[in-house]
Amino acid sequence: MVRKRKRLLINNMSDVEKVKKLRVATGAGFKDCNLAIKEADGDLDKAVEILRVKGISKASKKMSREAKEGVVAISGDEKKTSIIEVNCETDFVAKNDDFIDFVKELSELNNKNDSNLDNLKKSKMKNGSSVEDNLVALIAKIGEKITIGQTKTISNSSSINYQYLHTVVRDNLAKLAVIVSLETKENSETVKNFGKQLSMHIAASNPLALDSTLIDKSIIDKEQELITEELKNSGKPEDIAKKISEGKMNKFKEENALMTQAWVMEPKKKVKDVLKELAINDLKIKEFSRIKIGE
After folding, report:
1. Which of 209, 196, 204, 198 is nearest to 258 (CA)?
2. Are 48 and 32 in contact (CB under 8 A)?
3. Which of 2, 125, 166, 230 is the 20 to 30 A CA-CA neighbour of 58?
4. pLDDT tens across 208-240, in order?
């Protein structure tokens, strides 16, 4: 009886009222809603479905464009912290309320799903629809390509996580975000201060790995290729060129491994020296994650 009454009320609505209702329900523009109402012969449910299908079509067309703007979000606590990158085409959209609300909720879901992208996309958001469907709807509404980029969850039972946000857009959203995990039984202000400073150092120095042996082999191979190419045309004898090549590679590894980087707060020292000076026997840097929009 209630359904019949609701259907009767909808049927008695003017087209203008239906368009208004459809705009509230879907967030689509006036023109799109008006066309959908006409195509559905005034049936609101059919109009919603028409817009949903058209939204998917619009979204797929936009996916060929570049999305280098956006935000990085951090969620969680000191024991389990997650970071997620969401890209869009313009900085204007990166500050849009609908975009920001979507990313905030997505960030919380990402932490719950341990940065498993497949599970995240299938997760239900507060409106009852999946992340995937909400993403398509947001693309259709905003009119820009929006993609989920890098994700990472750091969770170690014996560690404490520290975080840093640079160029904050709003709350837990920024243009650059860092998580670093420190393992120690000590919970002193010294450790906390080091955790904060270390996360800032990582943001500024962009290390590729904790240790030089952990730098991705493809990056090492590419750098070696560039150095070899540079020295090929130098005219230097082969043995000299080999020594120069080794020196350049060692420098590259030193400058891109966190432990051997120059400490940002005191460049004459390396990160490993600062760690040693703290004289906390069980203090270790377990892992870190750094994500910057556009990199």
Report:
1. 209
2. no
3. 125
4. 999 999 999 999 998 988 888 888 777 778 788
Which homologous superfamily is 2-62 in? Ubiquitin-associated (UBA) domain (1.10.8.10)
Contact 140, 131 (CB under 8 A): no
The per-residue pLDDT for 26 is: 64
Determine if the pTM surpasses 0.85: no
Sorted by where each begins, the domain ranges of the chain are 2-62, 69-181+288-292, 212-286
Distance (Å) of CA 169 to CA 53, 98, 115, 129, 161: 32, 14, 22, 26, 22
Q: Kindly list the distances between the CA atom of residue 265 and the CA atoms of 134, 244, 291, in Å, as whole numbers in the listed order.
A: 43, 30, 21
Distance CA 7, CA 1 (A): 10
| CATH topology identical between 2-62 and 69-181+288-292 | no
Contact 142, 99 (CB under 8 A): yes
Instruction: Give yes or no for a contact between 76 and 82, defined as CB atoms under 8 angstroms apart.
Output: yes
CA gap 38, 55 in Å, rounded: 17
The rounded distance, in Å, linking the Cα atoms of 135 and 145 is 10
At the fourth CATH level, which superfamily is domain 69-181+288-292? Elongation factor Ts, dimerisation domain (3.30.479.20)
User: Which residues, 6 or more positions from 289, have their beta carbon under 8 angstroms from its beta carbon?
Assistant: 83, 152, 154, 178, 179, 180
Which residues does the chain have with pLDDT short of 70? Answer: 1-14, 24-28, 53-66
